Amino acid sequence: MRRLLLTHSLIVLYGGDLMLKKAWPLLVFVLLIYTSAASAESMTAAELIEKARADSREIEELKKVMESPDRNLRLSAFELMMNSDNSVYRELAIEAGLSSTDNLLRSLALKGTIFNMDALYIDLSVDENAPEDAQKKAREMLGNEVPRLVIQLTSKNPEHDSMEVNANGRRGGAEVQGINFVFKTSYRAGTLSLKDGAVLQGPVSINSIRFIGTAKLR
Predict the structure, then answer these.
(1) pTM score, two decimals?
(2) Which superkingdom is the protein from (predicted)?
């Protein structure tokens, strides 16, 4: 019943019969979401294998939807998958979003990832483009300390894309700004941008010494 009501709502949203053909991929997508979300009863081995094959086909169909040239369809699919009770669909949405060429979708995926993390682990390296003196200071610091900055993510406010952070005992704030994660505490700050391979990377400053920070999201 819930599936039929949602399908009817989408038909009304797209303007009835005249727009039904255009909305059909999204309607099929919704049916896949809610059909697969139903709990499976006791099944035989053969039935389990067949269900696994059916799930595989559904996942491939969802991947095609996320790669659709229709931006509105991609964004609607992403939202539905993120709100699904099926963790596989949520992971698929994040994976597709992070690797997308659509910066809006990438931003939504970054936000969905960051706000579901307890901490961000940033590996530090020397900025080869910095002046030699700055590189020397960075190497000295990395030689004396663990080359990793841990950002604890607390008091999250998804509506405002912001949160409080604790960076190795230094408290401050952070925001998701488009495809960037920006944080600042006393003596520590950074702007990490989403790169290929689900990686955040960018300049990080610790005690006025500049590094390149890299954080893996997956």
Answers:
(1) 0.76
(2) Bacteria
